[in-house]
Amino acid sequence: MKVDENEYRLKFFLENHYVRKQCISCKTPFWTTDENRDNCADIPCTDYTFLDSNIGKLNLSVSEARKKFLEFFHKHGHTIIPPKPVLARWRDDLYLTIASIVDFQPHVTSGMVQPPANPLVVSQPCIRLEDVDNVGITFGRHLTAFEMGGHHAFNYPDKFVYWKDETVRLAKEFFTEELKIPEELLTFKESWWEGGGNAGPSFEVTVGGLELATLVFMQYQIVNGEYVPLKLKIVDTGYGIERIAWFTQKTPTAFHAIYGNLVYTFFKKLDQPYVDEEMLKTAARFAGRIDPDNPLTITHHREMVAKALGLKKEEVEKELTRAARVFQVLDHTKTITLMLADGLVPSNSGEGYLGRLLIRRALRVMKILGSDIRLKDLVLEQIEFWKEDFPQFLKNKDYILDVVEYEQEKYEETLQKVPSVASALAKKGNITIEDLIKTYDTNGIPPDLIAEELKKKGIDISVPFNFYALVARRHQSAPIKGEKEKAKLTPDVVEFAKKFEPTDKLYYKDQYMRSFNGKVLGVYKNFLILDKTTFYPEGGGQLGDSGIIKTKSGEEYHVIDTQKVSDVVVHVLDKEAKLNVGEEVYGEIDWQRRYRLMRHHTATHVILAAAKKLLGEHVWQAGAEKTPEKARLDITHYKMLTPEEIKKLEDMTNYVINDRRPVTAIEMDRMKAEMTFGVSIYEGGVVNKPTIRLLEIKDWDVESCGGTHVSNTSEIGAIKIINVEKIQDGVIRLEYVAGDMVSNYARGIEDKINKISEDLETSPEQVEIRLKRTLEEMKEIKETLSMYRNWYSSYVESKVIEEKVNGINLKILPEIIDEDIVKDLLRKLTSQGSKIIAVFIGKKTVDIASSKDLKLDELASFLRNKGGKGGGKGTYVSMMLEGKSREEIINDIKEGIERSIH
After folding, report:
1. Per UniProt, where does Zn(2+) bind (predicted)?
2. CA-CA to 662 of 20 to 30 Å: which in 144, 296, 540, 576?
3. Among 194, 211, 100, which Cα is nearest to 148's?
4. CA 589, CA 512: separation in Å to the nearest integer?
5. Is the pTM of this model over 0.90?
6. CA 107/CA 690 separation, integer angstroms
């Protein structure tokens, strides 16, 4: 979009003697009070000259920089709000929190919901993996985890807060008054921002080569490629908290400013000599000239550093590469800790995939450095270093360390597959980047290890320098994991239902209401729409109600399902309805079925909260289903539950049932709900409404839910977990029954026990004793049978007929009563030397085995030409040679050996 320069010509600039200039290098316009400045003060147009200046030398840590930023804007009328987790659980289109504005998308930015305060300020931890391959190489310009200080103002048509002039004024005051930067060193570089379907002009605030903040004015919505003005105009700023710390400390690299003494700790723990600080500072000064998309610029950068220090380029390359790798581990371990502390469970999908990617990249870099330290030991250092800034680190310490160790063990097992995976790729021929990404997605094996293995086979492949970034980009905005409900209504029915006003939902007014009288609003085939209903439509994992609809004339329809289109409830009848619009009908739900659904749905909330309390806050609902017969809940957890954990889970849920806790539905503004209860209210999914319905189980759980529930936990009756299984990496499925279905389940178990006792010829009371005795008897029988088999095997071996055929020692087994010993005998006979073929002719098949020095492929082909069916390859063949006598089969095999074995 071509931007009118008046978008940037602010009253503030004109009144404060700023001039608009154009950078002689990048040709970008910028604003400054320094009339002699000819560049935009941003890289690559200038180096990091701030490192050599004496300005703003406040020596702020990250924590102090964060505090200074928040307090400044609080002093200027902004409400400080707490940051959200780095997992964007309130978004259904994004996995990670990548900017402070994400906290308010899409519900606040769309105008659906009011912000928690206006204006407000937040320091939001963010994670971006698009530049993961550049971390360390640019000495701090790129990080996977960083804090974005954002002050935001939401300007409504009827409520103006502040806009461009005030935003720039606040930035100028913060940098000049708080960081003591002379105003003539500030440049406001004109830019343009787009993201999340929105766009607007922006200023990048740079000093001495370092961009310290971006001031975005979100004023357009992008619709079909067109820029449509927004009614809601939003100030969206991003101040780099870590960069502010680096600017004030002027340390050799940004990592020194962020991590302090932890830098030296990591060098020591990774068994790496420390790198000369003068070399690091020189490298950082020129780091702005590195273009990560152009690897040649890294080479030029190393040459510049070597020349400036009077050293050999090779020495500089070696040292800076080693330092970059230590910085990568330092950065990655903090990001891993942030992810896990906020509830990430490593897996092969969703945000779990991104977490595992970073863990495995850190492990690979550690291996390249030659370090034997466990990753969890480095993560522990991060926990201790950041525990004051991020209390969740210490709170979830045990979970974090346990998961990291578990993931390292899985990774080490994965590496055993490198040779076989590389061999499979080698057969493909032309190996592309797509093949490497697919191999990583499937097996989690670093591409450089695949390349090393392929090189042994004489195949050279090139691994992209930004491989992990390519992989991360593909997975960062995929649909959130979870079950997508299949459309139960055809498009024509959906279009029909859209014509009507929202249905009056009686099931929310009284969830115990069984019958009602309603008026017909519309009929289409066997789909009925009423003005009001107590039939609950399928949603939130709960099945739709069934029941009956009666007319005054006595005609009856069975409701076989209930669905909804937006806020319109659609009753699915068993036959085409002959009803008139305006006609009054009587409806009655199948109460027994509904009540079982209510019990199972409430039980699901009880179990989910219990799982979080027992296993940890990382537990998140990954799917759920409630039927009248049973319910299931899929939870994120990194390993299978133990029998003791399952029992404890049952005990906790039944305690809450016996405690008779009230269950209450609450209507609340969604932003207020988020600020009050946190984003865990979205366990069951994100609801796109300004007001959300919360279900509160007193002193136990609060979660957004539109289902029907009992009013007290005591009504659940009881909960019995009937099955626990790992359905995919990082997801555990719990199946359970509640209420009267517990007795149904117990009756089923009782019937099985009765059948077993009948088969064992004993009473149910004595079944355990009788079974134990039977197992002991079976053990004795197996031992006796094994002894007889060993004797029989030796006997059969003594009857083997041997003869030489074409230089091959052919061994033919006799007919055998117990064919279970055949394979063991074939294996034994063919391992006694070389050039051996052993044959067993059974009732239906012929089994042929050979010693390792022979291959039977051609023999199998010969026998197929003789009418055989089946085959094999290598040293084992199994064939069916029907209609032939034993002698004919032996003759065929001999002839095949003579013709095919060379």
Report:
1. 601, 605, 705, 709
2. 540
3. 100
4. 10
5. no
6. 8
How far is residue 893 CA from its own chain's centroid?
57
| CATH, domain 799-900, list 3.20.20.70, 3.10.310.40, 3.90.1150.10, 2.60.40.420 | 3.10.310.40
Structure tokens at 769: 């004793």
Go through 170-197 and write b for each residue having 16 or more CB atoms within 10 A of its CB, e for each that does not. Answer: bbbebbbebbebeeebbbbbbbebebbe
- Tokens 């008897």 — which residue? 777
* Packed helices 591-615 and 643-658: angle between N→C axes, nearest 10 degrees: 120
Per residue in 172-188, pLDDT (tens digit) is 999 999 999 999 999 99
- Residues 760-793 have pLDDT tens digits of 889 989 999 999 999 999 999 999 988 988 898 8
User: What's the pLDDT at 485?
Assistant: 46
User: Known binding site for Zn(2+): residues?
Assistant: 601, 605, 705, 709
**Cβ atoms of 124 and 99 closer than 8 Å:** yes
Q: Which two tokens stand for residue 276?
A: 């000369």
Report which of 656, 657, 592, 605 is spatially closest to residue 631, judged by C-alpha positions: 605
Looking at domain 595-746, what is its CATH homologous superfamily? Answer: Threonyl-trna Synthetase; Chain A, domain 2 (3.30.980.10)
- Spatial CA neighbour of 607 closest among 480, 713, 472: 713
Q: Are 245 and 60 in contact (CB under 8 A)?
A: yes
Cα gap 669→112, rounded to integer Å = 10
Distance of CA 816 to the CA centre of its chain: 56
Residue 196 phi, psi dihedral angles, 5° rounding? 60, 25
**CA torsion angle 277 281 282 287 (round to 10):** 130
> Are the beta carbons of 703 and 587 closer than 8 angstroms?
no
Whole-angstrom Cα distance, residue 353 to residue 395? Answer: 24
- Between CA 522 and CA 83 the distance in angstroms is 48
3-state secondary structure of 81: coil
From CA 10, how far away is CA 13, in angstroms rounded? Answer: 5
| Residue pLDDT, tens place only, 200-242 | 999 999 999 999 999 999 999 888 888 999 889 999 999 999 9
List residues bridging with 877 in a β-sheet: 848, 872
Fold that domain 5-251 belongs to in CATH: BirA Bifunctional Protein; domain 2 (3.30.930)
Q: How far apart are CA 211 and CA 737, in angstroms?
A: 58
Binding residues: 601, 605, 705, 709
Contact indicator for 127, 98 with CB cutoff of 8 Å? yes
**How far, in Å, CA of 126 to CA of 687, rounded?**
23
Give every CB contact of residue 376 below 8 A, 6+ residues apart in sequence: 401, 404, 405, 408
Per cent of the chain over pLDDT 70 is 98
CATH 2.60.40.1120 is right for the domain spanning 518-586: no
